[in-house]
Specification:
Layout (H helix, E strand, L loop, with lengths): L2 H14 L2 E5 L24 E9 L2 E10 L7 E3 L24 E8 L1 H6 L4 E2 L1 H11 L7 E5 L8 H4 L1 E2 L2 E2 L3 E2 L1 H9 L4 E4 L17 H8 L3 E4 L12 E4 L10 E3 L3 E5 L1
Parallel strand pairs: 5-7, 6-10, 7-11, 11-12
Antiparallel strand pairs: 1-15, 2-3, 4-12, 4-14, 5-13, 8-9, 13-15
Helix pairs in contact: 3-5, 5-6
């Protein structure tokens, strides 16, 4: 089948509903939960907006707002330059990342039951091998989405901050190394970051950030609706805003799946 025929078939599948579009994006608003770092580190900005006009004397026929938001607030994209290990790589910011990374196949690793029983669950290479034994090897060039069902939590249960820091699931270092050996494009999570809440205690600390970005790979976080996706057969669409020299960006993440 030619490229034109493939695109025509996709357009027909979308029109007839045989391919479904699933929104994986959390609502971005003044209530969006934030990653809070310990002092004395700087903090990301919460989402805020200022009304410019709303069909009134400030603008009789139009409604619009100014808004402020951090690059890493809400459902967002991490470019390699976000972490010190990726700072010297070529094409490492959101405006220079190869656009082919934003539309690609994705697999979903479902360990939601384990995360329900243990908020500090760490995804390991052994877990991934077990998943591959059932679903096949993770294809090179895929996005890997870690389903924890954590997005079903709200408020304080979502951030789950305790006196010793956040307690949320994430990957162990050996899992990230295994995925890099598989040649993945990036790693996505339902939690507020790609790393576990207690990832500062791992070796290396924050392995998703340290290893992924050092290898020129990317991250997605604060996803939702991963329970609506199949283990394999998803096409992920995740283009960030084209911010010059940007380290990350809020974005709308969509998934194409068979109905």
């Amino acid at each position: 089948m030619s490229g034109a025929q493939c695109l025509s078939a996709l357009a027909s599948a979308l029109a007839t509903g045989s391919v479904q579009i699933v929104d994986l994006t959390q609502m971005l608003s003044e209530d969006t939960p934030l990653l809070i770092l310990p002092e004395p580190f700087g903090q990301t900005a919460a989402f805020s907006r200022e009304e410019i006009s709303r069909y009134d004397e400030r603008g009789v026929a139009w409604h619009w707002n100014n808004f402020t938001v951090g690059e890493h607030t809400g459902t967002h994209f991490d470019a390699p330059v976000h972490w010190v290990t990726g700072k010297d790589l070529a094409d490492n910011s959101v405006d220079r990342v190869e656009v082919g990374n934003f539309v690609a196949a994705a697999v979903v690793l479902d360990f939601s039951r384990e995360c329900r029983d243990n908020p500090d669950f760490l995804l390991t290479s052994e877990h991934i091998r077990s998943w591959e034994a059932e679903h096949g090897a993770i294809p090179e060039g895929s996005w890997v989405l870690f389903r924890s069902d954590w997005s079903k939590n709200t408020g304080d249960a979502y951030t789950n901050r305790q006196p010793d820091g956040a307690h949320t699931p994430g990957p162990a270092a050996d899992a990230i190394r295994y995925l890099l050996d598989r040649g993945i494009r990036g790693f996505g999570t339902e939690t507020i970051g790609t790393d576990a809440g207690q990832a500062h205690l791992l070796d290396p600390a924050y392995p998703a950030h340290t290893l992924l970005h050092g290898a020129g790979r990317m991250g997605l976080q604060c996803l939702e609706n991963l329970d609506r996706l199949p283990a394999t057969g998803t096409i992920l669409i995740c283009p960030p805003l084209k911010i010059r020299d940007g380290s990350g960006s809020p974005l709308r993440v969509l998934a194409l799946i068979p109905s």
